[in-house]
Write a structure and sequence with these properties.
29% helix, alpha/beta, nine-stranded mixed beta sheet, single chain, Dihydrodipicolinate Reductase, domain 2, 21 strands, Rossmann fold
Amino acid sequence: MSIVSHQKILKFNTMSSKISRRKFLKTGAVAAAGLTVVPSTVLGKRAGHVAPSDKLNIAAIGVGGMGHANIRQVEKTENIVALCDVDWKYAKGVFDRFPKAEKYWDYRKMYDEMGKSIDAIICATSDHTHALICADAMTMGKHVYCQKPLTHSVYESRLLTKLAAKHKVATSMGNQGSSGEGVNQVCEWIWNGEIGEVTRVDTFTDRPIWPQGLNAPEKASKILKTLDWDLFTGPAKMRPFNEIYHPWNWRGWWDYGTGALGDMACHILHPVFKGLNLGYPSKVQGSSTLLLQDCAPSAQHVRLTFPSRDNMPKVAMPEVEVHWYDGGLKPDFPEGWPEGKDMNHDGGAAIFYGTKDVLICGCYGKDPWLLSGRKPNAPKVCRRVETSHEMDWVRACKESPSNRLMTKSDFSEAGPFNEMVVMGVLAVRLQNLNRELLWDGEKMEFTNINPNDEIKILIKDDFKIVDGDPKFNKIWTDPMNAQAFASELISHTYREGWKLPAMPK
């Protein structure tokens, strides 16, 4: 998706959002024509028509963690017909709650056997399998709710964006704050010119809260009979199982997760992306504590530069720098910050530096306020979600494609946004090139990595004490072609037996 296309989507969302859900439903026969109220037995679910009065048949993949929370939001009104997880001990509580639902280890077998009876899926697996599960579902015409981060790589994000558009399915990424009032207010204040032109944004999170910066384990752990490690590994390279990887700590390992960026940037950076109408960055640079080949660093800083965008009616959109900090690192306090006030609000914060004022909000865009103390009274132009993030997606699933109100994190927005998030990961993993990287978003490639450039990555950082002094032993990879390494990070090579559908043109 081009930057121009993204801007058009934002304008569409803004116009659409001027009609409240309540007003929309009160407009009588005209509005009713936009909803698929004809029974699905008449129109046929194959055409994507599901009556609002009907229940969706939902399959959930990855149900032991956040998937369980997502299911709880929809189970009272919809049918949970199938459950899939690679760890049946971790998933047991959910399995027991839905005894009539079909149970699977492998989502592919579930799709083969139940594809005709499933309307929609919820995906809450580890990051590296999101793209496969969601892409296959959309090619089958199924609606998709996917946990954040949307994907593990830039290419995967681009693919899901295009597949969703091609198949006209209802989609949503699980950054639930996008349906909250905080994000609405941040956007409305910026768009109304309340803080002027924004040229810098500082963001941070207090995570990771799991171990990172670790050497890869050298010993394998015993695999429980309730875990299918091969299925968990999926498209990643096979390595011996260790309890440090599963069920929680996979977030910190590059093969499976995206560190604190993937976990929290989808919450903290969303009001930045949406409020500033961002597209693809033009320049990126990352730095961190010790960078290892297999594990995310314990703390990192990323700077992404976005070129100027089209002016909005009340405010210009100049070039802007977006800074990200995690692992205990925080940005400097803005001048005039209240003494003793903690920057951290519910897991992080974002600080927008405008030419007129400074806007601060917490994680999920929570509780925005202006450093000046002024309280804006901006027009409400964003659509409000009066249910939950998940139920707003259910609503979208039941509307016809031609009249559907997009969810607050539809893949048309979540896809380009997730590219921003995983671009931060790229910046950190390529920091040993010792340069600011120039990015061509349309082509998905760096333009200033030369064909002969090489890069080395630290495999292991070890030491021993000799006569009281530490003797360090750092083990590095052999020099690798930097272009090839960067390309692999942008678009992963999958393990044999795992394949994505082709990129739509």
